[in-house]
Amino acid sequence: MRAALGFARLVLAWVVILGAGGILVVAVVVPWLAGATPYHVQTGSMRPSLPPGTLVVVEPVEPEEIGIGTVITYQIESGRPEVTTHRVTEIGINNVSGDRTFRTKGDANEAVDPDLVRPVQVRGRVWYAVPYVGRVNDLVTGPRQVPLLVAVGGLACYAGWMFVGAARDKRRGRKQNDLERKEGELVAP
To answer: Transmembrane ranges (predicted)?
Structure first.
C-alpha cells in the first residue's frame, strides 16, 4: 500500500512538472524563438473561436498578406500599448497615403469596429491560439509574478524532496540487501 502511494505521488509530481513545462513552452519559448508575441484574450468579442482566457500567439505579417477573414492583433490607437484581436471584414485604400486600411469586427459583435486600422497599427496575425493558457501567460509576464515564482519554487522544492527521498530509499534498500546477505552467510554452514 505504501509503495503504491509513493508511486502515485511520483506520477502526480511528474504530470504537474511536465504540464507546467509544456505550458511554458507553448506560452513563452515557442513565441520567443519564432519572433512572435503572446497576448491574452480578455473579452468575449471573438467568441466562440477565441473565448476570454485564450492565449493567442501573433506572428508579424506584411499588410499585403492580410486578407478578408484574417484575424489580426492591432493597436487600438496608434503608438499606444493597448491592442485588440479581431477579424478583417473589409480592405480599403487610404486616399491620402495610398496605404491599405482594414475594417475589423469581433466575431461575437453585432457591428463592425468604428475605426479603420492602418498598417502601422497592426502587430500581426494570429498564428495559433490555446484556450485557458492566456491566464497563465499573464502570470508569467504580468505584474502578478510573485504567485508564479512561489508555485515554481514550490514545485522545485517538491521535486528535490522526491529525488532525495528516492535516493534515501534506494540506499536503505541496498543496506537491507547487504545485511540480509551477511546474515545468510553467517547462517549457512
So the answer is: 12-34, 146-167
